[in-house]
Specification:
By secondary structure, this protein is α/β, with parallel strands linked by helices. It has one domain: Rossmann fold. The protein contains five helices and six strands. The protein has a six-stranded parallel β-sheet, with helices on both faces. Helix 2 packs parallel to helix 3. The longest helix has 15 residues.
């Protein structure tokens, strides 16, 4: 089984997710910084089967002259991830509810966009299981999160 890589600057949330998915039998790793994530991906391309990416995070790699807000960090990081891993599925986690970037994210191969404070761990588990079992050519690209809690 390939590993799931969480990229999120919220260390507490990420640690919970890593522990939860390890208990379910998944191989999981995490990185908090954009530069760390890219280095990790470059070293472990063959091992990564799914990336879960927070779109809003500070940047070590991309300077303020390149980014107008923290959302840009996730977008730039996603573009660089695609250079290294063009077909590995990506799930976006964000608190941003303005999904005007949906088309751009879809073009970058994003399978799901999940609203961070609306999705439960069990819902994320179900999405992961659905995506991991999907043939690579299937496109989902929809926003989830405005659903009732378990």
């Amino acid at each position: 089984m390939k590993e799931i890589l969480f990229i999120d600057d919220d260390a507490r949330r990420t640690q919970f997710q890593v522990e939860y998915f390890e208990l379910l039998g998944f191989r999981v790793s995490s990185r908090e910084l954009d530069s760390e994530a890219l280095d990790y991906i470059a070293d472990r391309r063959e091992a990564i089967g799914l990336i879960i990416l927070d779109m809003i995070m500070p940047s070590e790699k991309y300077g303020r002259e390149e980014t107008s807000d923290y959302f840009d960090t996730g977008l730039f990081l996603l573009r660089d991830i695609r250079k290294l891993l063009p077909v590995v599925p990506v799930i976006i986690l964000t608190i941003r509810r303005d999904l005007s970037e949906l088309q751009q994210l879809s073009e970058l191969g994003v399978k799901e966009i999940l609203i961070k404070d609306k999705i439960t761990a069990s819902q994320l588990r179900d999405v992961i299981k659905e995506i991991i079992e999907l043939p690579p050519e299937r496109e989902v690209s929809r926003a989830k999160g405005d659903v009732d809690e378990d």
